[in-house]
Amino acid sequence: MAKDQELTHEEKLEKVKAMMKDIKIGSLTTIAERGLVSRPMAMQETEFDGDLWFLTFRDTPKIKEITADPRVNVSFSDDDENYVSISGRAEVLEDPEKKKDLWNKAFETIFNTEYDDPNLVLIKVHAHGAEYWESGSKVKAAYQFVANLVGDKEHDLGKNESVNLDQ
Amino acid sequence: MAKDQELTHEEKLEKVKAMMKDIKIGSLTTIAERGLVSRPMAMQETEFDGDLWFLTFRDTPKIKEITADPRVNVSFSDDDENYVSISGRAEVLEDPEKKKDLWNKAFETIFNTEYDDPNLVLIKVHAHGAEYWESGSKVKAAYQFVANLVGDKEHDLGKNESVNLDQ
């Protein structure tokens, strides 16, 4: 297996996209007054382009938390124990067109409402970094093949191992 | 299925313990300078009593992050899409006896060292709240059977639905 340090920015991003492709449930972590809290969230069926979208109700604690502090993490793991961590900033949007675009039949069951419900809002997470852990099923691989995709102007972790999703 | 609001504190805690029992990998989220970051972590084989223990190396970013801000989240999901979120505060310990207690053969493979390696440290997460989502395999159930176990003196979310792990 090629060391991930040898991969290009584009190859690393493709790897993250591929890992996320078949994952249906992500974990969204926010900063609440009582500490860090997370919850399972259904993923939208869109290709990952740097933004993640979630649907939720306006009166949920996570909307209050995001409004107070937009820093979030979204993580995913699949059955093979591949793992992706996305760091980003969340914003709450009420975009009826986007809600319609993202809507599918599964959401009718989850939310027990329709896409034009005014209480339904969008959470848009702008990812500024991603890290992934590849694994067969062994923790050893997950540990040793860690590849750090995160990088930004202030906190570059090393050019060969980092990539900035904003680029 | 009984509504979780009708469960006692003890019954809810037993449910969280049962959900966590067979889970080998948790997700540890910390506050870094660049935002919220998470990573997969091997769980220790101890019964959950309010504290979670992890082993890691002293020179990892998570140790730096926890030292700067001890607020963390640990989440778990199992193959049935049950989900547990633990909010807590982390501290870094160098307790040789506890490292020996927690050590097992799997860690030799993961860390490629022995329990008495001075670079190996313990992360102790003192959980002050837990939330869980029960599911068969349907997102609907995960959404509708949400049970909020979290509560503390300042931010009680309702006596019937919350429980304080510190009690």
Summarize the structure.
The structure is a homodimer of 167-residue chains. Chain A has helices spanning 9-21, 61-68, 96-102, 105-111, 139-144, and strands at residues 25-32, 35-42, 51-57, 71-77, 83-93, 120-133, 147-148.
Question: Could you describe the 3D structure shown?
Answer:
- The structure is a homodimer of 167-residue chains.
- Chain A contains five helices and seven strands.
- The two termini of chain A are 27 Å apart.
- Mean pLDDT of chain A is 74; it is low at 136-167.
- In chain A, a hairpin with a 5-residue loop joins strand 4 (71-77) and strand 5.
- The first copy, chain A, has a single domain (4-148), classed as Pnp Oxidase, Chain A (Roll), CATH 2.30.110.10.
- Chain A is an alpha+beta fold and 167 residues long.
- In chain A, strands 1, 2, 3, 4, 5, 6 and 7 form a seven-stranded antiparallel β-sheet that branches.
- The interface between A and B is large, with 44 and 44 residues.
